[in-house]
Amino acid sequence: MPREHPVFAWFYETMSRPAEWLGAQSGMNRMRSRLVASLDGRVLEVGAGNGLNFGHYAPHAAVVGLEPDWQMLRRAVPRANASRARISLVAADGETLPFASGSFDAVVSCLVLCTVPDANRALAEMRRVLRPGGQLHFVEHVRARPGWLASVQDAVDPAWAWMFAGCHPNRDTKGAIESAGFRIEKMKEGAGGMMIRGRALKA
Ligand SMILES: C[S@@+](CC[C@H](N)C(=O)[O-])C[C@H]1O[C@@H](n2cnc3c(N)ncnc32)[C@H](O)[C@@H]1O
């Protein structure tokens, strides 16, 4: 169901600009490029936000950018138009994907499973719309391994979620990906275990 977080969308757009200006010198840009540049065929990006990944897709990718927040979606339009890939935008929730089963070669989730209200349902939907052998490509921030950092994440969670449009800093997203029936083929951790990036196969 489309919704709006105008303050968060403005904040996210403002924070995005310096990384975009920096181009390849920005670590975030390199991460985005590593995530999507090699993807081919029919790609679904869930929670595409203001379209920061769109400039990193290869020309032959046919990408659907799905995003429920109109304030994000309208900011994604110019980036979709400027992309070398074919990008169509769809306003919908990740928990109820309006696509046939098996209709995508790859699904991308970039800093999204922290925010989706029902991450388990969204992952089940991502798995459903992937073709057999299709892959989920993810970059997510997650709960660190047990220790002081994870305790801080737990403590700040309610205020964090209020400030950042429902984002939770302490989710076990790796566990959720595996519980949804994906097999993680490759994964790297960063930022003291607070970031994960990798790919998972529809097992
Ligand atoms: C932190 S932003 C990340 C945006 C983008 N993926 C990126 O890499 O910059 C999180 C995004 O998840 C979206 N989101 C929130 N709930 C969602 C849901 N139920 N289904 C799909 N996307 C959702 C938000 O609207 C927001 O655009």
Give your account of this protein's structure.
The chain is an alpha/beta fold and 203 residues long. The protein has one domain (6-202): Vaccinia Virus protein VP39 (Rossmann fold), CATH 3.40.50. The chain has helices spanning 6-22, 27-36, 70-82, 119-129, 148-163, 173-179, and strands at 42-46, 62-66, 86-90, 104-110, 130-141, 182-190, 195-202. It has a seven-stranded mixed beta sheet with strand order 3-2-1-4-5-7-6, with helices on both faces. β6 (182-190) and β7 form a beta hairpin. The model has no long low-confidence stretch (mean pLDDT 95). It binds S-adenosylmethionine (SAM). Residues 46-49, 52-53, 67-69, 72, 93-95, 110-112, 115-117 line the site of S-adenosylmethionine (SAM).
SSE ordering: HHEEHEEHEHHEE
Provide the residue-averaged pLDDT: 95
Oligomer: single chain
Form type: globular
Q: How many beta-strand segments?
A: 7
For the terminal residues, how far apart are their CA atoms? 29 Å
Q: Based on the structure given, which CATH architecture is correct?
A: 3-Layer(aba) Sandwich
Assigned CATH superfamily: Vaccinia Virus protein VP39
Radius of gyration: 16 Å
